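Re: beginner question about structure tokens

> Can someone show what the tokenized structure looks like for a real chain? I only ever see the sequence side.

Sure, here's an example I had lying around. Input first:
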Amino acid sequence: MAKITVKNPIIDINGDEMARVLWDRIRESLIKPFLDLKLMEFDLGIENRNKTNDEITKEAALAIKKHFVGVKCATITPDDRRVTEYNLKKKFPSPNGTIRNILNGTIFREPIIIKNIPKIVSHWNESVVIARHAFGDIYKSKEINIKKKGKLTLRFESDDDKEVIEETIHNFNSSGVGISYFNIDSSIKDFAHSCFNFAIKRKIPLFLSTKNTILQKYDEKFKNIFEDIYEEQFKDKFNEYNITYQHRLIDDMVACIMKWSGGF
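And the corresponding structure tokens:
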């Protein structure tokens, strides 16, 4: 039987432990015998990330950015125990986080519904697609351990020295921990465009879920950018396909997901 020719290369990202073993079996048994395909291989196993000081992860991400398609195995994000187990130089960051920030893309997760596999929620007759913003947030956060009494602040200084914004986060009377993370308007706009275009392509309704009642600047920024882009660029197209866009609080959205039958 002639192999199917695949025109463009695919980035093949190997991983750790059983994911590495299973992917090798899949590749050798189900892919290579049937496809004439160039695989550009990158080994993101923890030992190789340690050997290359994690440069291999950046190289893999840039290759995906150039060639558009990559397949990645599960990888270890090391904790203190793994650092000792593998004798690592340091606690390397999540490879997924590094790749996401370089690609500045949107992650769409969609379950595969198979008739002979029972569904956890029996009335989910269609898939629920989850879109996740893949830039900034916890993957680019900075954390500190706090061991003494003192004040934790959040401070912004503009490059022209004309604006300083400072907020007191907490006055510590004992030990604790702190974290700070961020996002940028351009990435949120890209995220919005990805979501709206995906909904149009699949002709399914779109919901943005936030906790803007609590995060009245951070999550509110997402809500406002989505609403502006929808009204200015996508509303007519959504009406044409008879699909809708709504913002809902995360609490309400979870309840709706459990109640509805999917297809959004």
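Each token stands for a local structural state, so reading them left to right follows the chain. The longest helix spans residues 218-240.
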